[in-house]
Write a structure and sequence with these properties.
- It is built from nine helices and eight strands.
- With 204 residues, it is α/β, with parallel strands linked by helices.
- The radius of gyration is 20 Å and the shape is globular.
- It starts with a helix and ends with a helix.
Amino acid sequence: MPISDTIRRLLRYRMCLEKFKRFGWDTTFSYTIAKESGLSSEQIRKDFSKFKISGHKKGGYNINEILEKINEIFEKDVTDHIIIVGSGNIGEALINYTGFEKHNIKIAAVFDIDPVKLKRKYNVPIYRMEMLQEVIKMFKVTTAVLAVPAIAAQEVCHELVNCGIKGIMNFSPVILKTPDSVNVYNIEMIPVLEALIYHSNNKS
């Protein structure tokens, strides 16, 4: 099941509004958000209306009110626990990333099969794969980050799904096969970079 375009846009609006707030703004207009987000004012008003986010014709939208509403939609008043499978370069970078806490996301645990990596000291616990189901159940985890080699990705994916995971952010260079009830978001760094290089080199 793909992540809906509306949800993606809502998160983009939040990013823009957080930037406006850092500038010290209290209010904004749909055309200002449109200019910053690259979307149309009409689309923004349509999305806001869907989630009952309203503004004023003359005063525009109150930034704090919209951010509060978006946080309610994503239930940011509670901590969301995730797990990371794979503690290689990508996994380690994610473990050390400090931006998760800002959005009330916490890494419950990291998993790996490499005995050497299992001995490393991180600010989150690292476990053998045998502990997967226990940790998922303990922290009620529904979302996982997959950062393992391509050869192991599908097998690990099956394990995650069997343990109740409903959302996977996939850094592995392989297209995962999952039930329709599982959301998969592929982080395709190399294909995206190659596409950018192609268009940059062939831009008229």
